[in-house]
């Protein structure tokens, strides 16, 4: 296989990992106003992702770095054309990260509520805008003969792009709420399980429209098969959660996101950014990639370091596999005072 094609799928792998892992982080952050009525409940929710949220975000850093090195033309066109949405995503991620670290530094109610609001907004904005961005990448955007984006922010806010944003927002929300149900006990657990079922029904309806639109516009057997897998697994996740099987529900939710993102990459292939101006201006895997020498060095580095990163992340999740109980949070709060 040509190395450029190999790296297209490696970058797809990193984005799939990012959306699965940081996706439930976003969902957990968005769930704060719905699942917790007191600070103990909010701490219980936040502590479910406390040890892993920053590790999950490294997948985005690696994906971006690989995109820059393997496909510089794709990177340049994407980041210049999608500058404002990507800037908003970056600012939201910064605000969310700061909030995780600072909300517990004071006991004041106003202080904590301010940072809780930043967590919610900092989770919802990327969850929505990533869907808008990827939907537009797949659909195609105005690109001229010089590989430059000629549209504006309003160009990206088209029906398919907005539907993509709504789909990722809901999928990540359900994925995160299911994770909260899996990792907590008491009132938060029960509220999360009920909310995941209700939100899951809405997610099924919205995602179904997005999948059908994508399949009809970019039909191929892999796109059709992956769209079907995503739909079946999302329904299975909702049903498993309704039966109080949070582990299965979370696993099915993860497979849903894997299949949905893989569907988008297959819909994009062999392009990396189609041009809605003229198909002759499409950025493809071949005309947007780096040299074979660069890709060869990257391949050896990936062969060595990717297994190490995967092993470390698996070990981290194993160490922090236990439920975050309300009693533990209350005991910690009492000892702190």
From TrEMBL:
Keywords of this protein's UniProt record, alphabetized?
Answer: Cell membrane, Electron transport, Heme, Iron, Membrane, Metal-binding, Transmembrane, Transmembrane helix, Transport
Q: Where are the transmembrane segments?
A: 6-36, 82-98, 119-140, 160-183, 195-215, 221-242, 249-269, 297-320
Subcellular location per the Swiss-Prot or TrEMBL entry: Cell membrane
Coiled-coil residues are: none
Q: Name one GO biological process term.
A: aerobic electron transport chain
Which Gene Ontology MF annotations are present?
electron transfer activity; metal ion binding; oxidoreductase activity, acting on diphenols and related substances as donors, oxygen as acceptor
Q: Which domain of life is it from?
A: Bacteria
Name the InterPro entries for this protein.
Cyt-d_oxidase_su2
Listed GO CC annotations: cytochrome complex; plasma membrane
Membrane topology designation:
Multi-pass membrane protein
Q: What is its main location?
A: membrane
The signal peptide here is: none
Report the sequence similarity comment from the record.
Answer: Belongs to the cytochrome ubiquinol oxidase subunit 2 family.
Name it.
Cytochrome d ubiquinol oxidase subunit II
């Amino acid at each position: 296989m040509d190395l450029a094609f190999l790296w297209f799928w490696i970058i797809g792998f990193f984005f799939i990992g990012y959306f699965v892992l940081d996706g439930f982080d976003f969902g957990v952050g968005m769930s704060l106003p719905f699942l917790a009525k007191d600070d103990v409940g909010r701490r219980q929710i936040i502590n479910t992702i406390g040890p892993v949220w920053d590790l999950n975000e490294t997948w985005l850093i690696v994906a971006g770095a690989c995109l820059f090195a393997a496909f510089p033309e794709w990177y340049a066109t994407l980041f210049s054309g999608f500058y404002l949405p990507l800037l908003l995503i970056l600012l939201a991620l910064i605000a969310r990260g700061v909030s995780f670290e600072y909300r517990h530094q004071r006991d004041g109610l106003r202080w904590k509520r301010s940072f809780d609001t930043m967590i919610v907004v900092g989770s919802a904005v990327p969850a929505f805008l990533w869907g808008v961005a990827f939907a537009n990448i797949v659909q195609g955007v105005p690109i001229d003969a010089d590989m430059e984006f000629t549209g504006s922010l309003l160009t990206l806010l088209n029906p398919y792009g907005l539907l993509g944003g709504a789909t990722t927002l809901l999928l990540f929300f359900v994925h995160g709420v299911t994770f909260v149900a899996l990792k907590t006990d008491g009132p938060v657990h029960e509220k999360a399980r009920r909310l995941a079922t209700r939100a899951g029904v809405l997610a099924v309806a919205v995602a179904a429209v997005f999948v059908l639109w994508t399949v009809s516009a970019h039909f191929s057997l892999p796109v059709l098969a992956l769209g079907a897998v995503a739909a079946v697994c999302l329904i299975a996740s909702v049903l498993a959660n309704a039966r109080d099987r949070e582990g299965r529900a979370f696993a099915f939710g993860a497979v849903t996101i894997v299949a949905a993102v893989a569907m988008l990459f297959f819909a994009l292939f062999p392009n990396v950014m189609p041009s809605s101006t003229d198909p002759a201006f499409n950025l493809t895997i071949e005309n947007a990639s780096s040299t074979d020498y660069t890709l060869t060095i990257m391949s050896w580095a990936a062969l060595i370091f990717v297994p190490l990163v995967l092993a470390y992340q698996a070990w981290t999740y194993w160490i922090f596999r236990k439920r975050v109980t309300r009693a533990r949070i209350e005991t910690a709060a009492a000892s702190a005072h």
